[in-house]
Amino acid sequence: MSKKPFEALLIGAGNRGAEVYGEWIHAHPDQLKITAIAEPIESRRKAAAERHVVPPQHQFANWEEALSRGKIADAAIICTLDQQHIAPALKALECGYDVLLEKPMAARLADCVALVQAAEKHGRLLQIAHVLRYTDFFQRVYQIVQSGTLGQIVTVSHRENVSAWHMAHSYVRGNWRRADQASPMILAKSCHDLDILYWILGNQAKTLTSVGGLKHFRPENAPAGAPQRCLDGCPAAESCPFYAPAIYMELEPIYEGLANAHNTGIRLVGKLMQRSPAIVRAAAKAIPTLRQITEFRGWPRSVITDNPTDLASLYEALQNGPYGRCVYHCDNDVVDHQIVIMEMENGISVSFTMHGHSFEEGRTIRIDGSRATLLGKFGFNHTFIEICEQRGGKCERIDMPNNVEQGGHGGGDKGLMTQFVKALAGEQNAVLTNARASLESHLMAFAAEEARLKGTVIHMSDFRDNAEKITATQPAA
Ligand SMILES: NC(=O)c1ccc[n+]([C@@H]2O[C@H](COP(=O)([O-])OP(=O)(O)OC[C@H]3O[C@@H](n4cnc5c(N)ncnc54)[C@H](O)[C@@H]3O)[C@@H](O)[C@H]2O)c1
What we know:
By secondary structure, this protein is an alpha/beta fold. Among the domains are: 6-131 and 414-433, Rossmann fold (3-Layer(aba) Sandwich), CATH 3.40.50; 239-327, no CATH class. 41% of the residues lie in helices and 20% in strands. It is globular and about 55 Å long. Residues 11-17, 38-41, 44, 62-63, 79-82, 84, 102-103, 129, 131, 175, 188, 409 line the site of nicotinamide-adenine-dinucleotide (NAD).
């Protein structure tokens, strides 16, 4: 590890850039420093510049300006929205930056391939933020599969259960609600899961097909008399799981998550916030860490207003902004459920279900081998792995801290950053997925979308070859 911290140019100081990676960097000043920022929204740019003490000459209104200066830091961390990944990432690689790029790599398959080719051509690190690989949970699943404990793996059934309110926030009301403005949901949300399956099984998909669609978040499913906005006197306010004031102002899902946490202290605070918030507010005067809960300013509140603790600002955002819309009266078109069926090259059959109608957020996985079955839950409230042997029926359960206790993405956000810094320092294999390995999950996602839309079975070797050919003929978006 270098004695001097590495320097980074942050491109996009929104939720991921400023709140997740920015905060990790702020907490690890001996490892990485943000020394330049590109962000068009002035309030975000100024706040991030102040937090990281970035000099005025290194504060830029957009990535174009920042990258026109050539290489002014060791690394570029690119956290713009999906369709704004390709151009800054290509330019940053060309300038000689090592790059941490948010997932998905790009919104078009040809652009994902172009990025891999550019990283290889310029000999730079291009790490895609596949945070799940860095979690204790999936590391453990990977080790168990690799150890042979389960015998020969035969089938895998993996689910990404997106909680109903998260679905409503991101994929019905929010930034990822339309494929033409962001990317298909199987890419945006589940390139992580497809990456995990590819990694854990150590194998590429041979054939793949998919079904799914947008079933529920449509006007015909609106409760009788539901207005365009939740605040306009909705008759279903008391019972609708998507009632915006309950999500953003009352923070019902956040406290629900805390109230079910594995950790006793967190659970107690969550239950008190549900039943007697005044007690927690009084205690917060003496215990500053409790203010993170009583004055909650994080995601998803931070997405809807710059003043997340101010109830008037939240109310105004719900009155006028996209997040106050009735979920049945939005302009969303991405799916709310999709199932992908794959046969891997080594004959393992895999099914993957992604859906946005879960009572809780989390992934579940079942891997059946010739010797034992692995059952895993990677959730906000509970995270555990159980291994049950065929002969004798003995079950071993490994309880792990849940996602609330581990922090963003069950510890994946901090794990990703730790390994990114190690990779900058030249540590071989610090990054668990190079750009070409990340490309595989993106190929699977694009293939799944094509299979869903056309009702076909995709032969992945043809699909891969074709992707390289298309890239040669299509200019980067
Ligand atoms: N790894 C994960 O698990 C994970 C989780 C959530 C989101 N994401 C991805 O992270 C990315 C960012 O998501 P977010 O929620 O932080 O979005 P965001 O909207 O909060 O932040 C994006 C920022 O980019 C800025 N921007 C726009 N144009 C720019 C330009 N020309 N130059 C510089 N900055 C510009 C915007 O003003 C905004 O502040 C998305 O691609 C998303 O899919 C990844």
